[in-house]
Every structure is written in C-alpha cells, then in structure tokens.
Amino acid sequence: MKDQNFLTENNARHMWHPMAHPAEMQANPPRVIVGAEGVRIKDIDGHETVDAVGGLWNVNLGYSCKPVKQAISEQLEALPYYSTFRGTSNDKVIELSYMLREFFEPDGLSRAFFTSGGSDSVEICLRLARQYHKIKGSPGRIKYLSLMKGYHGTHTGGASVNGNANFRTQYEPLLPGCFHVPAPYTYRNQFDETNPERLSALCLRALEEQISFQGAETIAAFIMEPVLGAGGVIPPHPNFMPGVREICSKYGILLIADEVITAFGRTGGWTGSRLWGVKPDLMATAKAITNGYFPFGAAMVSGEIAEVFESDSTGNAMIGSGYTYSGHPVGAAAAVACLTETFRLKVPENAAARGTQLFEGLKKLKLKHGVVGDIRGGHGLMCALELVSDQASKKPVEKETAAKIYEATYNSGTMIRISGPNIILSPPLVSQATDIDQVLTSLDKGLASA
C-alpha cells in the first residue's frame, strides 16, 4: 500500500465519488478506510469505529466472515471467470441457483437471472415485466408505477422509477411512462395524515386512482421496497404491501419487490415480502447476497412468470439482456458460502433483537434532543432519525448541522450515514448488544453537538 502521505495528498484528486459533488470531495476529502474486523472499521489515522452503515446495507455478516473469503480464494484458483451467456455455465452458479430456488420458495420465486448488483437487478425486473406482457399478447402494457421516496438504483430505468428528485433532475428526460404515487410516510405526506393505517388506505386509494387514470391496460408493473430504505427508512403499515399486491392482481399488473436491501434478513424476516406475507412476481436482490465481498445480484422470477417464458414457442421469450459478469463463478461461490453462513447464524433472529434494542434507544434520544424530529424503524436493523431545526415546523436542519453531528458521532466511535436531513443506520446483522450500545452512545454525543 502507498504511504499515508501519498493517500492523503491524492484523496479525491483523481476519482469522482458516487453520490457526491466532485468539488466538495476535493475541498473536504473523504475518510480513507484501511481496515476492518468484525463490525468495526479503521481509518488511515488508526481511528476505529462501529460501522453502523454496514458497508452500504450489505455487510450483514461483518468484515471477518472467513467462509466467504475462503470461497472467493478457492474459486479464483479453480475458475476465476467464465461467461454464462448461452452455451456455457459453471458449477458454482448452478449450485447457487438451486439454493436460491429453495430459499425463495416461500416467496413464490423459482428462477434466478444473475447480475452485477442492485441497479442491474432492478433493470432486469423492469425489462422482464414488459417482455412478459408482450409474450402474453398485451404489448400496450409498458408503463411503471412506483412510490415517491422510493429508491431503485441509478440506471436509467431505475432512476426513472426512483421517487427522489436528487437522482432524477440532472439526468432528465428519463424513461417515459413512469408515474409515482404517495408513499406511506407518516411524518410528511400530502394528506397531513399521521395515523399509519389511515395513511396506508389513502395511499392505496391513490394507487388505484392512478391506475384508473392511466388505464390498467397500459401498465406493466408496480415496483416498491417492502420497507423504503435510502428514502429515509419508511416502514409501511402491515396492510400496505398486501394491499398493493391485491390491487396489482386485480388489474393484471406485475408486482416487483425491490429487495436489494431487505432480502436475506435485514428486516428481521428472511425477506421483506415474507415479512408482510406477500408473494411478488419479480424481486430484485443484491448487496447481502455476498456480504458485500463481491459485486453480485439476482433478479428472482416467480413460477407463474417462469411458466409464461418457458412455454413460449414464438421466440419472443428470448432474453435480450445480460452482463459480462452475470453468474460470475467467484461471485456465485461467495454467494453460496454467504447463504450457508447466513442460515447457520440465523441472522434474522439477531437482526430483530438488536433492531428492537436500537429502535428503543433512538426513541429515548428523540426525547432528549430537540434536533430529532422523527424516529423510524422497528423492523430489524434498519432505522433512521430525521433531523429538524424546529420540531413544531419540521423544518429540516441545515447541511452544516448534519455534518457537525456526523463528525461528532464519528469521533465518538460510530460511523453513520447522512442522507439529506436523515441519519440512516444499517449495522451488520451480526452486531452484538455492546455494539448497539456504542452506536447509541456515540449518537447521543453527536446529537448534543448540534
């Protein structure tokens, strides 16, 4: 590794960082992370913190998961790469596809299309939804519906169904035919409704009205996260996703579950869809599938959708999508090992317990610190604090205040993620009670600095 002086001098000078202004990164260089163990990371200055970001929602098993590291190493020796485009395959991806079929059976999903990550998986789901309707003889079904505040990656299709202007405005015009309906966001919504159940009913009514306005015969799919993640951790009322499923089924619209974040235990359930008792038609997964150790993802397909594709005799079901690294043998080996370890550790159980500990602790911090306007969570290890300059008006804090809280929290021993006025927390699912205590202690000091 280059020495510390080199790294400090060249930080952000020759690369652009995702989700950041290039000039700002040069003015305020990012922290250089050089080591990690367990659920802790260490920066170039030797400062160690609990990683309450979990990498980026993906390091569910922490940074010391030897089975996954060993699987990657062994696969690099056996077969470091080969394509899975028609005509060739590899042993690890076949094994993984069988494991995923078993894992997702309760969700009604039986086929996997492998990708390089979450944005890819979303893109494939959107494309397959349109193709499904074409095979079925409904080529006019080309539109997509999604939720405001939803996040679905940054490819053109994903950005088009994204419900946050930050990922859209500078890249418009995007994909035509994408329309949004209100999210069940009790703290801020156009209905001024704070009751979760009543808000859920209003959002479901808005969805049905949008379908009526657009014409069901023009709509291919509705895409949603079971718990909205990057938009600020917005858990819906338990009847919301089942209500969406019912409406989609009523009008012949496919339901795409974006579970790039929520699959594999994050919510305290094995999947977010399973948490709400819903079987989607398609599901986008990635992140935790390899514990973040290798870029990899999968678009999962229901048995009903698979039957339509596999029984086609016209040629229209030929899948004209794919990536150089689809079904990468090293990624597949990492995923096999990761899933095996995920099952062994029964991570949803720990995620539920530690998530309750974190959520209850955040409630106490809200009572203590006026800068906290809202606390959201309650479903596994995904929580958020929404920061305000005034609790009565709900005016978001200034960027400088959020940065100050971040800095003080980091110096106190915890890495957090700031997204707009939100502090988003997604610690590894193997975090222990002492780790969550550290997160809460650091946040207490960080919030006190505002």
Structure description:
The chain has two domains: 31-63 and 346-448, Aspartate Aminotransferase, domain 1 (Alpha-Beta Complex); 68-343, Type I PLP-dependent aspartate aminotransferase-like (Major domain) (Aspartate Aminotransferase, domain 2, 3-Layer(aba) Sandwich). The model has no long low-confidence stretch (mean pLDDT 97). It is of the alpha/beta class and 450 residues long. The protein starts with a helix and ends with a helix. Helix content is 40%, strand content 16%. The radius of gyration is 22 Å and the shape is globular.
CATH superfamily of the largest domain: Type I PLP-dependent aspartate aminotransferase-like (Major domain)
Helix percent reads: 25-40%
| Global structural class | alpha/beta
Oligomer: single chain
Number of domains in the coordinates? 2
CATH architecture of the largest domain: 3-Layer(aba) Sandwich
Descriptive key words:
15 helices; 7-stranded mixed sheet; alpha/beta; Aspartate Aminotransferase, domain 2; Aspartate Aminotransferase, domain 1
